[in-house]
Amino acid sequence: MFEPTPRINEGIVLAKTRAVTSMMDISDGLALSLHDLAKASCVGFKIYEDRLPVLPDVQESLKGDELLEASVFTGGILSYYSQ
Description:
Layout: H1 8-17, H2 30-41, H3 56-61, H4 64-73, H5 78-81
């Protein structure tokens, strides 16, 4: 699991460009957040498994489908696997 650092200054700069108008918290898991975003926007998404950011400790603890499911369907629970 990553411990994200809020990037307030970057958010302010992006908001001033008016190119970025919203944000989304994905702490409940990538799958749920993509589902909500797809439904609201009438679009779809493709997830590239090899591009998901996963800490090395988590990669050592989980393999295959178990790692993919944890990466996509969990939020903060991944920190459990890296301890």
